[in-house]
Amino acid sequence: MTEPYQNKQLQQQQQPRSHQVVKAATAATAGGSLLVLSGLTLAGTVIALTLATPLLVIFSPVLVPAAITIFLLGSGFLASGGFGVAAISVLSWIYRYVTGKHPPGADQLDHARTKLASKAREMKDRAEQFGQQNISGSQVS
């Protein structure tokens, strides 16, 4: 694992000094230009917000309820679509299970059903035994 790291170190040491200087200059130029661009973006955002604030304050009695309404409508439609997709997928799974096409998870469902049925039989037998013991116990007293 250390061999590739050592090879990379050797490559860096073997590179001429001019290549390393060019790499550093390119990185500094790219980083500096991105820094300047982010500063300009920040300044533009502050100026736009400063100019738009009076309009937002004037129209806020209309804009805020409109934004809330649009958000609620959008989230309602999104939730409705999601529930519809979920219902269709569940119904298609049930259809495939009923028709015997063995959808994913059918084995787990069958195993759970048999386990539940065996526990129900076991509890029924215990209840019958308990009932018979109480009936015979009450007749002896």
UniProtKB/TrEMBL annotation:
Topology of the protein relative to the lipid bilayer: Multi-pass membrane protein
- GO BP of this protein: post-embryonic development; reproductive structure development
Q: Briefly, what is this protein's role?
A: May have a structural role to stabilize the lipid body during desiccation of the seed by preventing coalescence of the oil. Probably interacts with both lipid and phospholipid moieties of lipid bodies. May also provide recognition signals for specific lipase anchorage in lipolysis during seedling growth.
User: Where does the record place it?
Assistant: Lipid droplet; Membrane
Q: A Pfam family for this UniProt protein? A: Oleosin
* TM spans (from-to): 71-95
Per the record, the similarity remark reads: Belongs to the oleosin family.
**Looking at the record's lineage, which domain of life comes first?**
Eukaryota
Keywords of the record, alphabetical order, are: Lipid droplet, Membrane, Transmembrane, Transmembrane helix
Q: What is this protein called?
A: Oleosin
Query: GO CC: one term?
Result: membrane
